[in-house]
Amino acid sequence: MKKTGIVIVSHVHEIAEGIHRLIQQAAADVDVQVVGGIDQNEIGTNFDTALAAINKNTAENLLAFYDLGSAKMNLEMAMEMSDKTIKIYDVPVVEGAYTAATLLQAGVDQENIEAQLEEMHMVK
Fold first, then answer.
1. Which residues neighbour 51 within 8 Å (Cβ) at sequence distance 6 or greater?
2. Which parts of the chain register pLDDT below 70?
3. Can you give the pLDDT at residue 118?
4. Which of 8, 26, 69, 118 is deepest in the core (most CB within 10 A)?
């Protein structure tokens, strides 16, 4: 079974770091890479940082979460440049990423994780 990790892309550095801190409390064994903002002071996202988060993650299978449309667009472009298996979820970023991480920590398979995330699906 392939190791599964999480990537989170947010427009704001503090949001990304806050989600990461929250997840680490409940899922310390899950590789979670986050990127937020263009840098620590500028709001936005870009392709390079999304790809760097994907590449930094030690897992070959990634569940990806984002906050707003351009973050999703950058994740989609980065996916095309990676050999990893990546699935992007259209769910609330905090709740979705936290749910996925805690379920991964508990050893739940991706099919069951996806079933739970589907209940959170939203049009962003």
1. 77, 78, 81, 82
2. 1
3. 96
4. 8
Q: Mind spelling out the 3-state secondary structure of the chain?
A: CCCEEEEEEECCHHHHHHHHHHHHHHCCCCCEEEEECCCCCCCCCCHHHHHHHHHHCCCCEEEEEECCHHHHHHHHHHHHCCCCEEEECCCCHHHHHHHHHHHHHCCCCHHHHHHHHHCCCCCC
Which residues are designated catalytic? 11
Domain ranges of the chain: 4-118
CATH code, residues 4-118: 3.40.50.510
Instruction: Tell me, yes or no, if the pTM score tops 0.85.
Output: yes
- Residue identified by tokens 């699906």 is 121
> Six-digit token pair at 40?
């620590």
- pLDDT attached to residue 57: 98
Model pLDDT, residue 1 = 60
CA distances to 15, 71, 98, 112 from 94, rounded to whole Å, are: 9, 14, 6, 19
